[in-house]
Amino acid sequence: MPGTLAVIGAGWAGLAAAVEGVRAGHAVTLYEMAGEPGGRAREVRVDGLALDNGQHILIGAYTQTLRLMREVGVDPETALLRTPLRLTEPDGRGLQLPPGPPIAAFAIGVWRRAGWSLGERIALLRAASGWAWRSFRCAPQLTVDELTRALPAALQRDLIEPLCVAALNTPAAQASAAVFLRVLRDALFSGPGSADLLLPRVSLGELFPAPALAWLRARGATLRLSTRVQTLERQGEAWRVDGDAFDAVVLATPPGEAARLTATIAPSWSACAAALRYEPIVTVYVQAGDTRLPEAMLALQAGSQAPAQFVFDRGQLGGPAGLLAFVISGAQPWVDAGREATLEATLQQARTALGPLLRGELRVRQLITEKRATFRCVPGLQRPPATIAPALVAAGDHIEGPYPATIEGAVRSAVAAVASLR
């Protein structure tokens, strides 16, 4: 039965929960401690320039995210640049999947990939066939390194490590093979277009948070931004949020904040949320004259002196010409090394990897570090369940589920949380 619903947190999970709550007929009140919505996938203004706090990639398999974008008035066809999966390197080589049925597209892409020997291509196709034969399942304690140990080094370097760190934000030596296989199954083999890259042409704020907030306001939801919830407590059949009564609550805050609010309500749930460990992502925005890269996204060879795994041409994605975003996932070693070392190494990597493509001097515009970008997706990880107590449910990319910390994981958890209250 529809009733009064408090949603605590206005990241993508909280916004999705609030939208779903209004659609289900609830009277929704949305709380957010920051002045703007979006959480870790938000717009950042730097000297009047709209940047993002990290360069996020969506894929065709993000069905719930795309549905909710349409619900709040965003057209994914114009807001996102859709291309078949392409992990193109600056020299033009890389895995590039053609359009079409996923299994055939993957086989064709592997077969056409320049720079791999015949034996390497056969090894990858044989391994992928084995994963499919086993329904993309493996022992829960395996790491990605252990799963793929038999593959040639070139495949590890050119495909496995970049895919793993992009999808799980955890190095292959530490990452859960079970989650990695699940991502491969849904992204590469679940249907035509599922593996397509969807690169935002607008800021992350315009992609969903700002339109969602406007949609909620227009439908009578109560919005309490710049409001950190201090107390959450049960009183009879109701939940009280800072003293105000609600029939149900969706807790869509980061894990640490959720652990604080539930410490006395559900101590074991709180402890599970508090025990999660994190991996940072660093984004270095560099102005490179009027450089235009061959593609909007290029894969880079990362290493001990080369931090970034990908570079994005923001000029092709609605931003100013020549603005490049270098993304460093699994970035703890570089956070430890410090800002100056990270900038120096990134600029050197840009000169080495992009050399002849650059047009103009390199100038750092901004370095953004999201220290708790994602939970560390390791084998056997215990994540907090969605249900905390009667009429109190959690949403977020950290909630128990089959996916790593992604926008789609956050949105799906929110949809499920609201559905469980009906």
Characteristic key phrases:
Polyamine Oxidase, Chain A, domain 2; FAD/NAD(P)-binding domain; single chain; 3 domains; globular; 35% helix
Global shape:
globular
CATH fold annotation of the largest domain: FAD/NAD(P)-binding domain
At the fourth CATH level, what is the homologous superfamily of the largest domain?
A: FAD/NAD(P)-binding domain
Distance between the termini: 6 Å
Task: Give the low-confidence spans.
Answer: none
Average pLDDT confidence is 94
CATH class of the largest domain, named Alpha Beta
The whole-angstrom Rg is 22 Å
Helix content: 25-40%
* Sheet having the most strands: 6 strands, mixed
Whole-number count of domains = 3
Structure description:
This protein is of the alpha+beta class. It has three domains: 4-75 and 203-276 and 380-419, FAD/NAD(P)-binding domain; 85-195, no CATH class; 278-375, Polyamine Oxidase, Chain A, domain 2. Helix content is 35%, strand content 23%. A six-stranded mixed beta sheet has the order 10-2-1-14-21-20, with helices on one face. A hairpin with a 2-residue loop joins β20 (387-389) and β21. α1 (12-23) runs parallel beside α10, α1 (12-23) packs parallel to α15 (407-419) and α11 (255-262) packs antiparallel against α12 (267-274). The longest helix has 16 residues, at 118-133.
Concise synopsis of the structure shown:
This protein is of the alpha+beta class and 422 residues long. It is 35% helix and 23% strand.
Topology:
Blueprint: E1 4-8, H1 12-23, E2 27-31, E3 43-46, E4 49-52, E5 58-59, H2 63-71, H3 76-79, E6 80-83, E7 86-88, E8 94-96, H4 102-112, H5 118-133, H6 144-147, H7 153-168, H8 177-188, E9 197-200, H9 204-207, H10 209-218, E10 222-224, E11 232-235, E12 238-241, E13 244-246, E14 248-251, H11 255-262, H12 267-274, E15 278-288, E16 297-299, E17 310-313, E18 323-328, H13 332-337, H14 339-354, E19 362-375, E20 387-389, E21 392-394, H15 407-419
Parallel strand pairs: 1-2, 1-14, 2-10, 14-21
Antiparallel strand pairs: 3-4, 5-9, 6-9, 7-8, 11-12, 12-13, 15-18, 15-19, 16-17, 17-18, 20-21
